[in-house]
Each structure stands twice: as C-alpha cells, then as structure tokens.
Amino acid sequence: MADDLLFYDGKAAMHQDVAVDLSGIGAISAAAVAAIGIPAALMVGRWTMRGALAQAEGTYLAALATASSNHDHWRRGVQRDACVQFLVITAELDRLSTPMDQAASHDEIEAAHTAADEVLHRATTAYYVVRLESSELGEVANELLETGRRYAIGGLRWGAAERARATLNLFEEEAGSRLTHVWDALHRLGEAHDAANRQRGRGADYWEARGHARRILGGLGGLTDEQIHDLLNDAENPVDIIQLIERFHAARESFLEAAHSRLNAPVTTPDPESRSLRAVTASPRTSRDGA
Fold it and tell me: What are the pLDDT digits (tens) for 234-253?
C-alpha cells in the first residue's frame, strides 16, 4: 500500500514537472514571438509613416508649384501692363505737333509746350513703374525715355526756329532780295560756337560773333526778342529733327525687343529639394544646433 502511494506521488510529481516545462516553453515561445513582432511592428509603422510623409510632401510640393506658378503669372501680368503703358505713352510723342506758321499765336505755341510737358511727365511716371516691376528693363527703358525727351524738346526748338526763319523768308519776299548779311552773320556765329566747343571755352571770337549776329537781327525790325533768341540758338545748336526721330524709334524697338524677351522667358520653378518638407522641417533644428 505504501509502495503504491509512493509510485503515484512520483508519477504526479513527474507530470507536474512536465507541465512546468511546457508552460516555460510556452512562455519562452511567446516572448520570442513578441521579440520578433515588436521590430516588425516598428518596421511596418516606419514604412507607413514614410509613405504618409511622402504623400504629404507630394501634396505640399504640388501646392507650392501651383502657388509659385500663380505668383509668376501674376507678376508677368503686372510687368506686361507696365511695359504696355510705357510704350503707349511714349508713342504719343509722335503725335505731338508744333506750330510751323510764323503767324502762330502765343496760345497755340503755349498749348504745344503744355502738351509736350504733359506727355513727358506721364512717360517719366510710366518709366519708374517699369523700373519698379522689371529692373532688368531699366537701362533700355531709360534710353527710350531720354531719346523721347530729346525728341519732344528738340521738336519744340525746331518749330520755333522754323517760325523765325519763316519770318526772315517773308522779309526777303517783301524786299525782293536775299538777306545775305543776315544768313552770313548766323553762319559765322555757328562756326564760332563750334570752335569754342573744340577749345572748351568761349573766347572773344565767339562773343564778338554772337553780338554781331544779334545786332544784324535787331536792325531788321519786325523780329521779336523771342524770335531773335530762337535764331541765335539755332545757329549755335541746330536741331537735326530727322536724327532725333530715328534715334527715338530705334530706342523704342530696342525696348520692345527687350520687353518681349523678358516677358516670354521660361518661368523658373522652385528646386524640389530646397523646398521639400524635409528641408523645411530640418531648417529650425539646424538653426537651433548652430545656436
């Protein structure tokens, strides 16, 4: 009886040990599965996060490209309007008229000066708008403005000299002979002025020639002080109106060509790497690390 009890007790102990061993093995297996599962879960999570980040970055870059394109198109529109306005205003210089008739009234002459001043003022304003919106066009725009200014002012001077010469021609018709001494005096003044420019100084010869021409003109009678002034200035600095027109038109063509090239140049797109989410989010850390 006692032997039987000992046998059953030993068998039960053996089963208990086996059960303990099995439960230990199960625990170890579970731990091993968990150890494998954690890195796998982390890896899956990491790939999922990468995919989400890549998708977010793609959306961000697409939005950035759209915003940049919209801004570039808006800027091009503003620049185009500025260039068109500048061209339209400077083109009005071709339509300015100067009274040529020696009988033109003072009001007609003043109206011509006022019109030229008004167009030049508007052209100057348009020029600064072009410089503000397209600094690359500043040089050619300035050339167009300055040649236009010389064209407008030269046209007024040329018209004044033409009216004064028309009065001299009228005197010649009334006298029935050419006023040779008048034209010779004006020609002599022109030569004296050129010589003074070459010598970089107005000497006695220049002042004597100018005084002589003024006395000849004043002795004619019928010429106003303004007409005498216009004839003297024209003798010293004759206006080549054809040259002024050609230079103005050449400057306008140069500006038009430069503006066309600038406004039709390919739109620059932002560098994807420099504008990516990684670069943007890394910038604050970089600045803090540097600090």
Answer: 999 999 999 999 999 999 99
Closest CA to 123 of 93, 96, 79, 98: 93
Distance from C-alpha of 9 to C-alpha of 137, rounded to nearest angstrom? 107
Regarding whether 92 and 20 lie in a shared domain, the answer is no
Q: In which domain, by residue range, is 36 found?
A: 2-59
> If you average pLDDT over every residue of the chain, what do you get?
79
Do residues 46 and 88 share a domain?
no
pLDDT tens digits for range 25-52: 555 555 555 555 556 555 555 666 666 5
Distance CA 28, CA 37 (A): 14
The domain tally of the chain equals 2
Mean of pLDDT values over 55-75: 55
Nearest-CA neighbor of 66 among 267, 262, 260?
267
Instruction: Please choose, from the candidates 210, 216, 138, the residue with its C-alpha nearest in 3D space to the C-alpha of residue 182.
Output: 216
141 and 255 Cβ atoms separated by less than 8 Å:
yes
Rounded Cα–Cα distance for residues 121 and 124 (Å): 5
227 near 164, Cβ under 8 Å?
Answer: yes
Q: Which two tokens stand for residue 190?
A: 């022109």
* H-type alpha helices, the chain: 2-91, 106-133, 138-175, 180-199, 204-220, 225-236, 241-263, 277-290
Q: How far apart are the first and last CA of the chain?
A: 88
- Tell me the pTM: 0.66
The verdict on 175 and 222 lying in the same domain is: yes
Q: Identify whether the C-beta of residue 157 lies closer than 8 Å to the C-beta of residue 260.
A: no
Gap between the Cα atoms of 116 and 98, Å rounded: 10
